[in-house]
Amino acid sequence: MSDKQELYLPSESVKENATIKDYEALYKRSIEDREGFWAEQANELEWYQPWDKVLDDSNKPFYKWFVGAKTNIVHNAIDRHLHSATRNKLAIIWESEAGEMRSYSYYALNREVSQMANILKSMGVKKGDIVTIYMPQIPELVFAMLACAKIGAAHSVVYGGFSYEALAARIEDANSRVLITADGGWRRGKPSNLKAIANEAMKRSPTIEVCITVKYNALDVEMESERDFWYHDLKALPIASPKCETEVLDSEDMLFVLYTSGTTGKPKGMVHTHGGYSVYTSTTHRMAFDIKPDDRWWCAADPGWITGHSYIVYSPLINGSTIMLYEGAPNYPYPNRWWQMVEKYGINVLYTSPTAIRGLMRFGDQWPKKHDLTSLRLLGSVGEPINPEAWRWFYEVIGGSRCPIIDTWWQTETGGFMICPLPITPLKPGSATKPFFGNEISVVDDEGNEVPAGEEGKLVIKNPWPGMARTIMGDDDRYADLYWGDYGDKDYYKAGDSAKIDKDGYIWVIGRMDEVLKVSGYRLGTAEIESALVSHPQVSEAAAIGLPHELKGNAIHTYVILKDGVVGTPELSQTLKEHVGSELGRIAQPEDVAFVDALPKTRSGKIMRRVLRARALGQDEGDLSTLEE
Ligand code: WTA
User: Among 314, 379, 493, 497, which residue has the most ligand 1 atoms within 8 Å of its CB, making it the best to mutate?
Assistant: First the structure.
């Protein structure tokens, strides 16, 4: 947070085109009558049967929304569009790294999703099952998610960059019988071999009975008879009819589980449900990005992360937008790849992460300058605080100083945006600005009392909201304990971030307070990295910390105590880096591995990562009174 704060005001034309022209007035209303506000938003959608109660808070913190209503997110994302002109509009434009292009109207999307839904049904998938999906960013990934939802099954999408260990652990936790994957994807002209990783994972997770593989990169893969089916073979069978009824569900039925990193080694399966999530994601998308009927929307994230779930797939489809999907590297074959696609497809809104912006910024202005980017109306950022330098480049060079940047703060757990501007909001680079409607957000001390303006404290949300996760799958206690109940009778949601609120009410998120790192916008737990290191036979103990990195935001640095008699060599350091990469996936590969004789610990044996970080940065080590000698 810089003290010298620049303020970027919306232009006259932005103000003229804005649907919501008065944030304060609508905000006030949404707080005074939160349930009324959310009921009004819910009425923008179609329901099979309306709710009896907007919010049921009788069993805190297990809140329920739109109780008694019958719905299915697919009804709003696809079915209802089939009865309007949206039917013939493009739902998906997809481009592969090699330049292949496919597009689907809402009408075509419905047929594809129905076919996949019927195939899943024929495999015995039913309401209550969780299907694991491990795919590159191809249209079939979107079909698979929607097909599960359509028949009332939940999905668990595992990011395609994750290793077999991570995939196996998630399959096991979800107890999945069915896995949907692909032979592989492409990165910088090289094929990746997802099916081989899936095969390894399936050896470790015996629950999988059926694996459906989409042919995409045509890599030779091993298929096991009885268990493995090619998607194109199944699609040719009579079972794969393009007509399928959408299952009528309860508002609170599970839509998906998505695993995210926390403070322990075991990833948390965050549970989201049909009703509240439909309302929350579509409202935040529609209002924060002031979605227009002819928008071509590009959320350049991965569908394997919450950003992809909420803002590549579900909310834009509910709002009838055309979504852009791209499977490939942003700078392949040249660093103008994204800008070329913005121009070619006439993208109106580009929503991405600070790490992607920094990554493209370093190639210089000449690459975006080759292209006409005037179709862009708004830009968006998510994942970590955006540094003002990247903000200005995005604003000036990509947005032509014309497009407000919608910096959205939220989490896997929140389902959708919690803090974000509207196009008319005066912007301060690096601040996600103000709470979204319905939300009261504060920065508090350990007792839950608000800290004075400008002082750092803990970010809390003081109210329930429809998009909130309902629990951690199979662990209600952990959910209640981790996120709620620190402040006596104040029912505050603890975000785990530290933040400041300035005198104008702008919220400045500083970063995670717990042992969670944001590396290139991806969320990783230090505990996961440490347990991957300790799983190596030559390692006795390990600590992982994040240190600032120009492109990645944070880079992982690790400290390792070797087993007795093992000598720390540069080769071993390299081996350990690669070991973590193969256990958790390449994004988790540490920048370096340092060999040490001891780690700073508290008397209760907790590693003091704060001390390691301060030492690495040459800073004051702070209060060492709890340090064990
Ligand atoms: C961080 C991603 C600052 C934050 C949607 C949060 C941000 C964590 C922003 C959640 C932002 C996300 N400004 N920090 N605009 N957006 N974060 O679950 O630390 O992958 O707690 O969800 O990302 O990460 P997650």
Answer: 497
The reply to whether omega before 61 is within 30° of 0 (cis) is: yes
| pTM of the shown model | 0.93
- Residue pair 299/311 in contact (Cβ under 8 Å)? The answer is yes
State the CB neighbour count (10 A cutoff) for residue 415: 29
Q: What is the pLDDT of residue 3?
A: 47
- Tell me the average pLDDT across 476-504: 94
Mean pLDDT taken over the chain: 94
Q: Does an H or E element contain 324, and which? A: strand 322-327
Pocket lined around ligand 1, Cβ cut-off 6 Å: 260, 305-307, 382-385, 407-412, 432, 495-497, 509, 511-512, 518, 523
Alpha-carbon span 547 to 619, nearest angstrom:
12
First to last CA, the chain: 36
Asked whether this complex has an ipTM greater than 0.85, the answer is: yes
Give pLDDT, residue 346: 98
Q: Return the closest-CA partner of residue 61 out of 499, 472, 498.
A: 472
Burial of 403 (0-12, 13-18, 19+ CB in 10 A): buried
Nearest CA to ligand 1 atom 24: 411
